[in-house]
Design brief:
The chain has 127 residues and is mainly alpha-helical. It has helices spanning 2-22, 39-44, 57-72, 107-116; strands spanning 29-32, 49-53, 123-125. It is elongated.
């Protein structure tokens, strides 16, 4: 999916530039987590950009903590000896974390960690 977004960036740039040019009242660019690679495109056009996260707060808390967990642990999450402490949540066993992050050798895992490393300041949560 990230490759598809990267291939589409030039098209997003052209489309967003034309929208900004034709409509002077563009107030923000919202991208979901899978399209966050497009945020710098909006920033270069002077449009405030945000990552929109439509899942539950526990998943958000886990994903925002994921870059730190990645740096401070070496084993697979299902092998963690202690529960993972998430802000605003009860401690969770590593085996109970999202299936999609259980395999740290998966390319998608690395992309998600990299992507999340810089999104917390631009994240908007649907309440």
């Amino acid at each position: 999916m990230f490759a598809a977004v990267n291939r589409a960036l030039s098209h997003i740039r052209v489309l967003l530039a034309s929208i900004v040019r034709d409509f002077n009242n563009v107030v923000a660019f919202l991208a979901d987590l899978f399209c966050a690679e497009a945020i710098p495109v909006a920033a270069k056009l002077g449009v405030p950009a945000y990552t929109l996260f439509l899942s539950n707060l526990m998943a958000l808390s886990l994903l925002l903590r994921l870059p730190e967990l990645d740096k401070t642990t070496t084993c697979e999450y299902h092998d963690l000896p202690e529960p993972v402490q998430l802000p605003g949540s009860l401690p969770m066993r590593g085996a109970d974390l999202l299936d999609t992050i259980q395999d740290r050798t998966n390319l998608a895992y690395g992309l998600v960690v990299e992507l999340l490393g810089g999104t917390s300041s631009s994240l908007k949560v649907s309440s």
